[in-house]
Each structure stands twice: as structure tokens, then as C-alpha cells.
Amino acid sequence: MIILRDLSIFWAMFHVIFLFLMLFRSRFTRKKTIVAAAVGMGFLMVANGMGLILLGFDTLSKIFLFTCSIPSFIFFYVMSADKRFKFMLSFCLADTTCLWVMAVTNLMDHYLGGGKYVLLLASRLIAFPLLEYLAWRYLRKPYLELQKEVGKGWGAFAGMTMLYYVLLVVVVQFPTNITERPEDVFLCVLVLVLMLFNYAIIFTALYRQLMVYREQQRARSLLEQKNMLEAQLENQQRIRKMKHDMKGYTATLSGLLADGKMEEALTYLTGVEAQMGVLRGQFCENPYINAVFIHYAEKFEEMEADCRMDVQIGGEDLPYMDLCRILTNGLENACDALMGIETEKREVSVQMKYNRNYLVMRIRNKCREELHMEPETLPVTDKEGSEHGFGLITIKEAAERLNGEMFCYTEDGNFVLDVMIPCNPFQSAAAQ
């Protein structure tokens, strides 16, 4: 009946890997990840299978940490998109959960199944698929979202899971298997129960963290919409005022021309042209995007910043909601950066134009000299308060929704934000 025990061990090893892959964010494509995991973990399973035959279960169980856990940790760490505490939490979470199932089924078989391994195999055949279903149904999606969006607060959770992993290995396997130490069974049961409560606390805290993040995102999205609508309303009010004033301008010009006062009419027309400059011109024909540019052009003027805007888009049908979200967050970040430096150094330039098959947006502003970052990283906000720090994340999300990309980096004392959006759906309209 030993064969039943060995089969249950290989079944558990396979599902440990499968459970981890559900919680794991690889830096490679799904196909490459699956192939690499199949080859690497397949080799590891074969090696441990040979060790089980040659060394026996008791010996292998004591060195399993070195023959399987550590090699698999190194293997997946190299492939992981997440490093340090995020990866450690995912790895220890999968391993500890599966060790918990193995310990419980082992005790059940020993005390309820007579140690014949029939109940051991049967219970594991059911427990592991059930565990994976629950993880897929309730844990995977929010957990992956948390890994993607939340950068801090993983260390304590990772440390707890790592300690429970070591504790579980020691309690179950050292100095001998727990079934051979009846005096320690009660202690083992306490550890297993305590682990349930511990993981319940971890999952609850992670879920609350996700809810807080989503609420912050919703609040920021509402604030963006409010600012955009206020800017659009302000723009429309200016247009209405200008239309009203044009009646007076026209009447005055008509009177001057009727009296033959051409020089006076020309001088007055020059003054009217200067007055109309308050409208800032129309940066573009899209009223929503234009309202954003007008709003921030005013803010930059109030800050006495040197602002240059190069907007080369027409009246084509644009995904203005996401584009306004990108521009609003990018320009707001530029305002924040300029407020932190001397007035005479405040410079910002904005470009929005077509480049082959892409709509390209670039916001370039002066920043603190000590700020340095590479294109692959996102800066961490130093603002106080939980409502800050989501601008670049929001821009990245909006760009990805439009199948585009976002890059940001520092260059010659400037912070540069580049966003490229494929414009196949609306480029034909832009060319007309």
C-alpha cells in the first residue's frame, strides 16, 4: 500500500505547482511560462521521485525543503514579474496551504483510515482540486489585482506565511513524522487550526486593502470628471461671453467705418484681437480635450510657468474620456512638480499629435534635480495623504485600455511622460 502514499505525494506536488501558478505573475508570456514550468518542475518531480525510491519517505521528507522547495523558489523567482515580498508571499502561501492539506489528510488517514493510505489518497484526490477551485473562484482575481496595483505593505504578510511554512514543516516532520509522535499531535492540531485563523486575517486584510484601493480610484475618477466638466463649463461660458461682446465690437467697428475713420477702426480691431486672446484660441476642435488644455493653461499661467502647447488634432471621433483622464493626470502631476521648484525654473511643454499609426502625447516639465528614474519604473509619491500617488497608475491603466503604452523617465532635469495610443479606429477621420 506504500504505492498509494507515493502517488498521493506526487499528486500533491503537482497541485502545489498548479496552485502557485494561479497566484503567480510571470514576466514572460503565458505559453513560455507553462512550457518552462512543465520542464523545470517536471525535472524536479522526477528527481524527487528517484529520491523517494532510493532514500525512502522518512529521509526525503526531512530534506524536502532543500530538494524541492528551495530549487522551485529560485526557479520561479527568476521568472516572476514580482520580486521580494510579493513573490515570497505568493510562494509561501501556495506551499503552506498545500502542506496544511497534506498534514490534515495524513492525520485523518492515520487515525481514521488505519494507516493504510487508502483514505490518504482518496482525501487528497478530492481536497486539492477543491482547494484550487476555491482559489480560482474567490482568490485569484483580487489577489492578482492587488499584486499589480499595490506596491507597499507586503512584508508583514510575507513574513507571517514564511514563519508558518517553517513552523508547519518542523511540527509535522521533525524529528520524525507526526504520526510517530502521538504526544505532539495535539500541538500539531493547534498549529493547523491557528493557521486557518491566521490566513483568514491575512485574506481579510488584503481584501480590505483592495477595497480601499478601489475606493481611492473611484474617488479620483470622480474628481477627474468634475474637473473636466468644470473646465468645459468655464470654456463654454467664455465663448458665450465672447459672442455677447462681439455685438458691441461689431457696432463700434460699424460706426468707425461709417465715419470713414479707417485708422481708428484698425487700431480698435487690433485691441479686439488682443482681447480675444484671453480665450486662448481653440487648442483643438474636441470640446472635452480642449477644455482640459484651457484649464491647465490657466493654472500654468497662474504659477508663472513657461508653458508651450503643440496640439495637432482635429475634430475626429476620439476616445475622449480616457484621453482626458490621461491628460488631466499628466498635467496635474506637472503642476505638482512645478510647485516644488523655484518660479524662474518652471517650464512645461505639451505635445499631442499623430505619428504614423499612433496618437502621441508628451508632457515634459522641470522637476527637482534629485529626482531620477528609469523608463521601467514608476516614481513613488512623497505627498501626504492616501488620496495621492495614483496619477501615473491611472494613466497607465487608461493607456492600456486603449491598447497603448506609457513611459515616464527623467532627462536633463525634466520629467518626461510619453503616451502612445494606436489610432487605427480614428486615424482615417483625422486625415480627412
Would you report the number of β strands?
Answer: 5
Shape descriptor reads rod-shaped
Quote the distance from N terminus to C terminus.
78 Å
Arithmetic mean pLDDT: 81
Q: Please give the oligomerization state of what you see.
A: single chain
| Major sheet | 5 strands, mixed
**Which range best describes the helical content: under 10%, 10-25%, 25-40%, 40-55%, 55-70% or over 70%?**
55-70%
Number of domains as seen in the coordinates: 2
Derived structural class = alpha+beta
Approximate strand percentage: 5-15%
Query: Poorly predicted ranges (pLDDT <50, ≥5 residues)?
Result: 384-389, 427-432
Q: Give, in order, the helices and strands.
A: HHHHHHHHHEHEEHEEH
Strand order of the largest sheet: 1-2-3-5-4
What is the alpha-carbon Rg in Å?
32 Å
Total helices: the number is 12
